[in-house]
Amino acid sequence: MKKDLHARHHALTQLMSIVHEQAMMPNRIDVLSAQDNTFCLGLIRTTLRHLGQIDYAMDSFMDVPLKMHTVERMLMRLGICQLLYMDSVKDHAAINTTVDLAKAIGKHKAAGLLNAILRRCQKEGKKATQGCAAENRMTPWLSAQLQKDFGKAKFAEFAPYMNTSAELHVNIFTPETTKDNADYISPIKGLQNAYKVTEKSVVAKEMNGWDAGDVYAQDAAAQIPAYLIQQFCKAKNPHILDMCAAPGGKSVQLHKTMPTASIISLDNNPERLQKVTENFKRCQISGETVCMDATRTTFDDNSFDAILLDAPCSATGTSKRHPEILWNKTLEQVQELVPLQQLMIKEALRILKPKGILVYATCSLLKQESEDQVARLLKHNPNLSIEKLSADMFDGRDDFINTAGMLRCLPNMGMDGFFAAVIKKS
To answer: Cα(421)–Cα(402) distance, rounded to whole angstroms?
Structure first.
């Protein structure tokens, strides 16, 4: 196989696994060089991000569309992606390498069709994608569920943003570090210490204050739960548990903003917990970590003044940085997560002190993992109540506060989709 086909071949095989076998997006392909890795992973992400539009354009060019699960269709997707969405690839290279790759993997009969359709796409350009509706830019069950949860009008507002690229957000913990980075950051309205990095060439690890631990890369929405602990936990020298702590961003934020608190960071995965330890070391934090099953902890009843439970979920709110989520999640996977979340909530309430607060959070857009979980909890536990969020907590910003006083961030708000509720135990 020609050298310039290696990265594209790996992209093809990975996409077949992600879209049709619910595989995870790889962080790197070990057999590829650094340059080829960058290209391969970029091609995979871009194809997934625009898969709905790519399919729409492809099918409009053909009297009989290619079958959905075929390698030939995925080859066509790769070629169209490079033509329409990857400016770094010349048109002739996008067409020729796709045709050559088809021949290299034994799909000689498809070569002529690929060449013809890709040349048609080259001529038509992005106007061939303009009729692609928002509901066709993700897997059908997810589109249907989000429209059921939010209504068609609201869905139409935020769904197109699910296919965009994520901005780089950081949490900056000192005024001096904020000043040192002022040339390429912009404050995010309503959020304490949250900033958008405005220069695309800037990476978080190269920012002033990174090595000293004064900068932490984290989406703005994910910074809010720890802030809610800070706002609603009124105990003096509180005992706080970060219940699903890895990779540690929320724990770092708690340590930095609540220095008198005693904080335990818990996770059930030793490797992920090691990442928490590494982040603590960089941020110069001496924090306690515990490897434990969050559904069956060994803590005594009524142990904590506040608990942050960012529960395992479908992560459907993070499609801007994980576009594979739009295509490789199944409804069955979500339905398996819901009872796990309920077990974790039950355990959190057992070890939460009376008058303590539980911040239940997910990076899911699906209400069955979020709003519905809280509604079910309140219905069956009269000793629980919601501590409502208000605009004055966020410098007057209220677009992400729902009618029940809970946090509901959507992708069109300049951040990830996210949910959080502050629950008080009487």
So the answer is: 10
Contact status, residue 419 vs residue 377, Cβ threshold 8 Å: no
- Write out the DSSP string of 161-185: GGGSPPPPEEEE--HHHHHHTGGGE
Is residue 408 within a helix (H) or strand (E), and if so which, with residue range? Answer: strand 407-409
**Burial class for 60, CB neighbours closer than 10 Å (0-12, 13-18, 19+):** middle
The strand ranges marked E within 77-206 are 169-172, 185-187, 194-197
pLDDT tens-digit profile of 134-179? 999 999 999 999 999 999 999 999 999 999 999 999 999 999 999 9
Those residues with Cβ within 8 angstroms of residue 206's Cβ, 6 or more apart along the chain or in another chain: none
φ/ψ of 293, rounded to 5, equals: -75, 120
Q: What is the pLDDT of residues 207-247, one digit of tens each?
A: 999 999 999 999 999 999 999 999 999 999 999 999 999 99
Tokens 């959507």, residue located:
410
Strand, helix or coil for residue 64? coil
Strand pairing partners for 360?
309, 421
Q: Give the start-end residues of each E strand in 215-318.
A: 215-217, 239-242, 262-267, 288-291, 304-310
CB 97 within 8 A of CB 5: yes
Whether cis (ω within 30° of 0) applies to the bond prior to 270 is no
Phi/psi for 379 (5° steps) reads: -65, -40
Cα 386 from Cα 206, distance rounded (Å)? 41
Helices (H), 25-90: 34-49, 51-60, 71-85
- Cβ(375)–Cβ(128) below 8 Å: no
CA 94 to chain centre: 29
CA-to-CA dists, residue 158 to 73, 84, 117, 162, 349, angstroms:
28, 23, 32, 7, 33
Cα 226-228-231 angle, rounded to 5 deg: 115
* Phi, psi at 41, each rounded to 5°: -70, -35
Owner of token pair 């699903």: 244
